[in-house]
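ugh finaly. both done.
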Amino acid sequence: MAIVLQELNAFIVRAKSATYVGDGKHGTPCRPGSHDLRFSEGEWNYLDSYFGGSDFIGEEVVYFAGKPVWAMNYYGRILRDDLLTAARAGQMIKASLSCMYKEERFLGGFEYAEGNLTYVDASEGSADCFHGRETIHCGQEIAYELVYHGGLIKD
């Protein structure tokens, strides 16, 4: 089964927009203690399953016709809780990603500023194989970071 990267990318953007960024409803956890967000559209299904809050780790998986075809792992944390709360970081991430998704993409090369905060996402690769880092700067200080990597899953 050949996955068309353009279709996959478009689905990922819609799924991410509808779940975390869109304040999607959390579903029944698939693992003890996990927070799970799901999105479905035709034969496409998306699951974002993560643990934690201000410091967190998770995995997103896209299924097509019941088979896992793409995944991404991530780990994020507040580096300077004296400069940035988890709640404010979450607001900034949602605002930033919402703007990026309007460009119909989910990978880096993106910057967004609001007040004294600047969100920066830098990545290498494309949906088939990538890695990257997102940060939130408070003035000149990096107060939050998330590292991620992922790509296509093949049998």
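ok and the 2nd:
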Amino acid sequence: MKKSLILLASAALLLAYSCTKADSFPGLSMDAYYPNMPMQDGMIAPPDEPASGDKFDKIQDNPFIKTSENAVSTFSVDADGASYAIMRRHITNGYDFPPSAARIEEFLNYFTFNYPDPTGDESVSINAETGACPWAKGHRLIRLGIKGKSLKESELPKSNYVFLIDVSGSMSSKDKLDLLKSGLIELVDNLPVTDRISIVTYSGKEELLLESTLVKDAATIKKAIRKLTASGATNGSSAITMAYKEAQEHFIEGGNNRIILGTDGDFNVGVTSTDALVEMVENYAKKGIYLTVCGFGLGNLNDAMMEKISNSGNGTYEYIDCEDEMMKVFVHERNKFVSVASDSKIQITFDPEYVDSYRLIGYENRVLSNEDFENDEKDAGEIGAGQTITALYEFIPTEKYSDKEEVGKFDFRYKKNLGEESRPLETKIVDATNSTELQFAAGVAAYGMILRDSEYKGESTFTMAKELVQKGLSFDPNGYRKSLVDIIGKAEKIK
């Protein structure tokens, strides 16, 4: 009797989806959290190496650059958050995190920062500040902040969503298709009745499960979502073509036309090479149909391809590890699906009189040539409504440097709409502040460099990262920052 009660209680814990508890992932055993509990019939043993089949591109840290040799640094914004959520799932379940999966820009941009909204006719605001570098004595940090214009519900354009859903056999688990279904139903309940939803599925074949339907007919949409079941191979020979065709047929001029791909891994949707897939999504992005990618599960996750095609498709790459994350992406922050700034680029010009050398922290695969900054044909990142983007530079001051010096200039270019000329913004970078937002960002970066085992981590420690993050808890929408404090503590025990 006692043994049965223990199993019942354990099962109840497994059903509770909380992103910061190790029992939050039904596809994994409690053994990850309760290592001394014996395995029972019906329990699923955790994999020895949960990421053994996952594919991550190797990251090479941006190096320090001598300002006397090149005083200008240019890169594209990145609004993804997948790397942070993948890290959370590993750490919460007691597993080490693959260093190549730690993309610091995605750690930073998982969080919303307390930045001012744009004013006047602009769709974007920019700001900058500096402060001491906590992991390298004598070095300084620059925090760059960007925020897309916030939109009220009544200001949001109509949306035309096409959900392209992997229903192959490997998606058949609580943390994959079941989680996706619950999130989609929640989304339907929160969308305006004038939005449209289509559903295309693929496994052994592709199928238009639901033709474009107005959200006011929510019952029909939910019925289609509940019908989703997983079986067969991951092979839809024309699935992505079908999805784009559906998006084109119901295209909304001036609206949010977006394909949302949900999959657990390496996918065959009719275009087998990454380059060909990138070319396809780029071409449709130029026509105003964007692609957002949502990854599920571990062991078969092609992170490298997902990040690449979402970047090319003018969308974001998210990783869904729990119901809370599903709510974050599809409900609390769904305004980010509405782009207010396209082809957004950053260029920093450092003053060699005060800056000896500098390095961009993260954004390794977003670095651009300086000539690309004013080239309106060069593709760059998108910013959603109300979305914040954060970047950090570390720099080494010269002997002439002193507090309150103007160490550089922050230039920014973006397009209100694709096809238009880009709009310039600029602000001075004056070495004067050191806000709690900068300290929070420094804590996130320090933590990321420790996980990456970066050669530039300096004196970074888990304790340092935790203390810096805690200084930024006064602004914490939905409590995501506070949960990071707990995650860092668990990572320290694993390490």
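summary for the 2nd one i guess: The chain has two domains: 65-151+339-494, 153-337.
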